[in-house]
Amino acid sequence: MEEGDRSRDDLRRRNIGLMPYAIDLHVLVADLDQQQALQTLLEHRCPSLGIQRPRFEVSKHPQHDGGCFKSSPGLLQTLQSYAAHAIVVLDREGSGVDHEPPGAIEADLNGRLASSGWGDRARTIVLDPEIEIWVWASSPHVDEILGWAGRSPNLRDWLMSEGFLDTGQTKPVRPKEAFRAALRKSGIKPHAPIFGRLARAVGLEGCTDRSFLLLRDVLRQWFARARPRPPKSSHP
Fold first, then answer.
1. Does residue 154 form part of some domain?
2. How many domains is the chain built from?
3. What residue numbers bound the domain in which 51 lies?
4. What does the pLDDT profile of the chain (236 residues) look like in tens digits?
5. CA distances from 129 to 7, 69, 120, 194, 224 (A)
């Protein structure tokens, strides 16, 4: 067995014991944009996330954000012996409980997931207000992927001129509206693969969004990279 296979097996035994789960992680998301982002992060950015790559799958709830909030515990109940862990991702806006802060929504759904049989093996990530908040990282890749590379004014100045961004702000208050307006101005049609391209290209180290940091911390808790073993001493 190769060293990489041994370390991955050690990871699974450490995190989930010896139960024969078919996969390490099932991610339930609300829409195709979220699906592209999460799929790409887990396929291509595990080193940047500080985790070993789990065996995973990502599915989309047919009733989007509201369905994730209302019925994901029941929907995921049949997967409790199939997946070692589960994550539910949804936007605050469109969840049906938009008036609640993201932490309260997460606590509510985490409690229902635990009571349904998942215990502490399932967690909720609420994007506030929506997935587009992840788009607005300080990276030249954002300008390039949104069709703004080399344009004048640049993307940030244009956002300010259009009222999407105020002086001192790092992200628009209405990220979806800003995202769609920027694409419309550059002549690019909004489509889900944009989120996959952004997730693959943009550096993760400087991301300060609450929901992204929560996702990263949950993944590290479950799938932390094994620490390198110290070299064997050459002394007898």
1. no
2. 1
3. 3-131+200-223
4. 344 444 455 545 445 455 689 999 999 999 999 999 999 999 999 999 999 999 999 999 999 999 999 999 999 999 999 999 999 999 999 999 999 999 999 999 999 999 999 999 999 999 999 999 999 998 999 999 999 999 999 999 999 999 999 988 989 999 999 999 999 999 999 999 999 999 999 999 888 999 999 999 999 999 998 665 666 655 54
5. 38, 15, 25, 19, 28
Are 26 and 86 in contact by the 8 Å Cβ rule? The answer is yes
43: CATH: 3.40.50
- Whether residue 76 is contained in a domain is answered as yes
What pTM value is reported for the model?
0.88
